[in-house]
Amino acid sequence: MIRAFQPADLNSVCALWLAANLQAHSFIPSEYWKANQALVRKLLPQAEAYVYEKGGEILGFAGLDGEYIERPRPADEPAYAAPHPGAPHEAVCRAGR
User: Fold this and answer.
1) H or E stretch including 2?
2) 55-73, pLDDT tens digit by residue?
3) Of the four listed, 9, 10, 47, 64, which is most buried by Cβ atoms within 10 Å?
4) Which parts of the chain register pLDDT below 70?
């Protein structure tokens, strides 16, 4: 089920965010992403975000910026894909388990 992000989702979503960025940006020191976790925890509850939940477990999330989906992060599909045809230079990373 896809539903709106709730404050109780913060730990799960932040864990997915970190795993996705570590996988997608292995050329950036992991300390950078870990250092930004506090900022993400602060800003995420203010964003328009949605989670994909199945069996009580959050398996992915995405934020919205107007009509544009910002960096969807499914938890179970390690891959890279272009987010939309208008931005081929950007990649959407999907956190693996």
Assistant:
1) strand 2-4
2) 999 988 888 888 888 766 6
3) 9
4) 71-97
The two beta strands, 57-65 and 2-4, are unpaired
19, two tokens: 């795993």
Strand 68-74 and strand 79-81: the pairing is unpaired
Query: How far is it, in rounded angstroms, from Cα 14 to Cα 23?
Result: 14
Q: Cα dihedral angle (69, 27, 44, 41), rounded to 10 degrees?
A: 170
Placement of tokens 């009580």 in the chain = 56
CA pair distance 50, 47, nearest whole angstrom: 9
**Strand partners for 54:** 57
How far does CA 3 lie from the centroid of its chain? 15
